[in-house]
Amino acid sequence: MYNRLIPMGDRPEAPAPVVLPWWAVPRVAAVIVAAAAIIAYARALGNGFTYDEGLVILGAQRFLQSASFGTLFSPSYFSGSLEGTWRPVCTFTYMLDAMVSMHPAVFKAQSLLWHIGAALLLMTLARRLLPESRRRYALWAGLLFALHPVTAETVDNASFREDSLVTVFTLATLILALDGRRKLALLTFTLGLLSKESAVVAPALLAILRIGRFDGSPARSARATAGALLRELVPFGAIALVYLGLRFGPMRMPGTYAQYPGGSFAGTLIGLPAMIVTVALMGVAYMLYVPPGQLVPALHSYWLTIHVSSMATSSAILSFSFFFGMAYLARRWADNRVLAVAAPAVVPATVSSGGVATMTMGSGGGTGGGFAGTGGRHPVAMWLQRVFPSAGALDGWSYRFVMIGFPIWTFGVICGAIWGEHAWGRYWGWDPKETFAFVTWVIFAIYLHARVTYGWKEKRAAIITVFGFAAILFTLYAVNLWIAGLHSYARA
Q1: How confident is the model over 385-439, as pLDDT tens digits?
Q2: How far apart are CA 95 and CA 226, in angstroms?
Q3: Rounded to an integer, what distance in angstroms lies between the CA atom of residue 485 and that of residue 492?
Q4: What does pTM read for this prediction?
Q5: Which among 74, 135, 164, 307 is least buried, having the fewest CB atoms inside 10 angstroms?
Q6: Which DSSP string do the residues of 448-485 spell out, in sequence order?
Q7: Intra-chain end-to-end CA distance of the chain, in Å
Q8: Average pLDDT, integer, range 112-120
């Protein structure tokens, strides 16, 4: 036995660490971003109170200078702070300013500090997500945020400080969660919710980073990824539900401050299903992802851009006809339900083609003509009436989207036929994709023919859009994933 000498040139060498330029070193970059923000907004410190500052700062001066911090978590918060929504952390920062001075420069200086903090955290997150060889560009992300004109309002106007606060706490939540410091991440998430309700998007952003593996985590099975993500996000969901319970329970503002979707519990919950569906679709896309292969010869054509663009655009436009059709059915149901509850003697309660509810009084109409008491109202139907436009308007929009999308779909099918003749030597071969694209075309052609010729509007037209939307989904997804054909390139 003897030892074999390995020449120095044959030994594997560890990759050399990336040396950042002096201006990209974290501490130097932080100083550059902070200095740039201070220089850019120095003159704003000399401005007076503007916009809502006269209400939430000058108007609430006595409350802010009282240092009654316990009021931040009591129903008297609204009468003292003159705020329209419960944002105790933001009001707490106003109280700290008022304890120093009521001069505008004091309030604007703290807003500038929060803005600088948000820029530094964004730079930190960018450095965390970028590959090591490109981390120098994190400085540009921080500078862009610090100096972009769209953020000037949060500095010059202290009444918009909640935007800087929620940005700081949301970015901190993401950074701490990515670093495995979950308890601190939950704390900053809570502070973000108490600053502004839009912090509820933090778990969705974290899910996007995890699913996309932007955090540099190793590849795992879909089940393992889903399980780990669920365990991580459940505590965030629990905190969000507690916050919503407090905001629309004990800390709900008495009376009406402003009419906007987030002003009610139901309006706020609209965004939750959308967020869940978005994250779920990203998870499905992650699980169904197939690495790209060699481009097949048939795709080497300028018809690729023309055909695919037209089909994708028309699919989206025709899908909107379905969405508006479903909204029409919901509004129609709400109108009929409200009429039925409000006037039991009405026979019948219907919605006219113009979307206006009409009713005919029965013979005994004396006692049933008035609106019923609050106990007989249908809250879901009344909410739909407030949120949705009239039924006639929704039906009209559904028709307009078909009128726009159908010609584009037709153009896309014709372009596909021409491309097929160039690539495969025939215009039409009843390939599964071609067949169901034709089926979709026939369905929407029936919609237009029935509506124009036979006057099929409203309910019957909306039902046809259901079949059209199902055909679009089948053409775009089922054919690609489960039916082999010339268009199923992902299966090649």
Answers
A1: 887 888 888 888 989 999 999 999 999 999 888 888 877 777 887 888 888 899 9
A2: 43
A3: 10
A4: 0.59
A5: 74
A6: HHHHHHS---HHHHHHHHHHHHHHHHIIIIIHHHHS-S
A7: 53
A8: 95
